[in-house]
Specification:
Elements lengths: L13 E4 L8 E4 L5 E2 L4 E10 L2 E7 L8 E2 L2 E3 L6 H13 L3 E12 L4 E10 L10 E7 L12 H15 L7 H8 L1
Parallel strand pairs: 4-9
Antiparallel strand pairs: 1-2, 2-3, 4-5, 4-7, 5-6, 5-10, 8-9
């Protein structure tokens, strides 16, 4: 349900109704006619790898405080998804990464979010807990704390990453895929 109560253009109260030519209820200002669209928020992250091990961070914030996750967070206006994934990794895990190819896209309906995850290569082994993390660690495949992964979308991304790695697909880059298509 919408939390929008006032028009962002003129400040008057809005009503929920289906505007002409639309099919869904929107926040409509009857004073100036502005329609406010509510869309999912984009969360971007990556699965960083160093020497066959995957970097995870244990969350210091809610939701899911104390659970493990791959570095991820909200995409900022004017920021590319690759830049956001690298920024979130630096903030949450104090690690520098080269962000690679797209790994997974998950529509998280209950949270009104879309989670986009990329493959990434750590530029060095250094990592540590940022302000949103309790600790960080590098895990071999058999060491991943599967029962303590914070979110289903991260669980899915980790599974895909490991399956791709087993199939030898971890080093495919966008330019390789584009060349192969032509």
């Amino acid at each position: 349900m919408s939390t929008i109560k006032f028009c962002s253009n003129c400040g008057h109260a809005v009503t929920r109704r289906i505007p002409e030519g639309d099919q869904l209820p929107r926040a409509v200002c009857d004073h100036c006619g502005t329609i406010t669209y509510e869309n999912p928020r984009v969360v971007v992250g990556c699965v960083p790898e160093w020497d066959g091990r995957i970097l995870l961070a244990r969350r210091a914030i809610e939701p899911r405080r104390g659970y493990w996750t791959a570095p991820a967070g909200f995409l900022e206006i004017g920021e590319s998804m690759h830049a956001a994934a690298a920024r979130e990794t630096a903030e949450e895990a104090l690690a520098e990464v080269e962000v690679g190819t797209l790994l997974s896209v998950v529509n998280v309906l209950h949270a009104a979010q879309v989670h986009v995850m990329f493959r990434a290569r750590m530029l060095h082994e250094r990592h540590g807990a940022g302000t949103e993390s309790l600790e960080t660690a590098l895990f071999r495949e058999g060491e991943i704390p599967w029962g303590d992964i914070a979110f289903a979308s991260i669980h899915f991304a980790l599974e895909r990453y490991l399956a791709d790695r087993r199939d030898g697909l971890e080093h495919i880059h966008f330019h390789d895929i584009l060349r192969a298509a032509h």
